[in-house]
Amino acid sequence: MKKTGKQIFIILAVIMCFNGSLFAKNNKESNMSLTVKQQSIIPIATYTARGELKQLKQALNTGLEAGLTVNEIKEIMVHLYAYCGFPRSIRGLQTFMEVLQEREAKGIKDETGADASPLNDHRSKYDRGKANLETLVGRPLDGPQSGYAAFTPAIEIFLKEHLFADIFDRDVLTFAERELVTISVISAIGKADPMLRSHLAICLNVGYTPRQLEEFVGIIQSTVGKKEARAAKEVLSEVLEVRQ
């Protein structure tokens, strides 16, 4: 049966509405999941923290293919040393050098990416670090020190001046990406629940959704193990319960 121009127009309109709804649904779902780039950060951080260099090589290749630049991966290694030490960080960097050499020998040209921007902030390192930490936790930190900070004031100064100023002021990675590295390392090394609890809460503050953090736990299970994933899931459940 021959369709009239009006009928054809109606059919096309219905198809376009359906496709538009489907696109909106798929786009909403994709926004609720970690991006491929974010997903690739997690195994790089976990394998480096655990010194599993064979697995790290594959994770580094996957990360480069997912769109991480050379400088972003370097920065992941720089950031995580604050949580698992120089030995793991340096072994990770050495492994990354090997990967880049192997890829170059195959004719693969990887994007270098941006360097850290020059810092134009004349505040003291302590004040810069304090401001960055306040942004992360979402509240002012003007009260008296307590806990480990009161017990050993030097480490509180080192944290603010070095970790949250020297490192967090480097804009090669966003605060959100840095926190993803942090929770990956803490989950990988294990037995640091109070710190993991704090940083999972920060992850919610910097924009990650509960679903994305649950996806993170799933990646921990596939890269580190069921025991570590179960521990991370328990801490995440506590954090989400407090937020409700």
From TrEMBL:
Residues 32-92, 158-237 form the Carboxymuconolactone decarboxylase-like domain. Gene3D superfamilies: AhpD-like. InterPro entries: 4CMD/NDH-1_regulator, AhpD-like, CMD-like. GO terms for molecular function: peroxiredoxin activity. It holds the Pfam family CMD. This is Carboxymuconolactone decarboxylase.
